[in-house]
Specification:
about 180 residues; mainly alpha; 9 helices; globular
């Protein structure tokens, strides 16, 4: 049970009810995180725009890369509920449980192309230490084939997970 009072389906407005119904249709439940966001419709709407823009729309980064970022940044942030949810989503994109466990245990043992490993390592670093990034790191990622727009997207995805992991952890989702 979360640390704060969470609204039930009967207690929310029409917009939030539609979000709840859509989430339940996809996942089979209404998550604590969705219920936390439902406390403030404006925050829920803003969060849903971020999710659509960064995660569920086709973008310059492929869905598997986005899910690896989601899992590993959430792991770095200690957000177990987000790690578990994105492991489930990663499996929908064909990432096996074995690959997830192997990667979570040791990123260096993951079966990634080297440029993808570099990008994911960069994302893990910037989750907590973005102020330590140096120009040469971005140069190396560009040399590995990433455009500036892809690097911005990756940083935005990390920012989203820092945001949602903070809300989920601080409000006690899943506890």
């Amino acid at each position: 049970m979360a640390f704060i009072s969470l609204p039930d389906m009967k207690d929310v407005d029409d917009y939030t009810r539609r979000v709840f119904i859509a989430n339940k249709a996809i996942t089979g439940e209404i998550s604590d995180t969705a219920r936390i966001l439902a406390i403030r419709q404006d925050i829920m709407k803003m969060t849903n725009v971020m999710i659509k823009t960064l995660l569920t729309s086709e973008t310059e980064l492929d869905y598997k890369t986005k899910e690896w970022i989601a899992i590993l940044v959430s792991l770095k942030n200690g957000c177990e509920i987000c790690v578990d949810e994105h492991k489930r989503i990663a499996k929908m994109f064909g990432i096996t449980e074995e690959a997830i466990d192997k990667t979570v245990a040791n990123l260096r043992s993951a079966d990634f192309p080297e440029n993808q490993r570099m990008l994911i390592q960069f994302c893990i670093k910037i989750a907590k230490d973005s102020y330590k990034v140096v120009h040469e790191e971005l140069d190396a990622l560009r040399e590995a084939g990433y455009a500036d727009s892809q690097l911005l997207e990756a940083a935005a995805i990390v920012g989203y997970f820092n945001y949602i992991n903070t809300i989920t952890n601080a409000m006690g989702a899943g506890r």
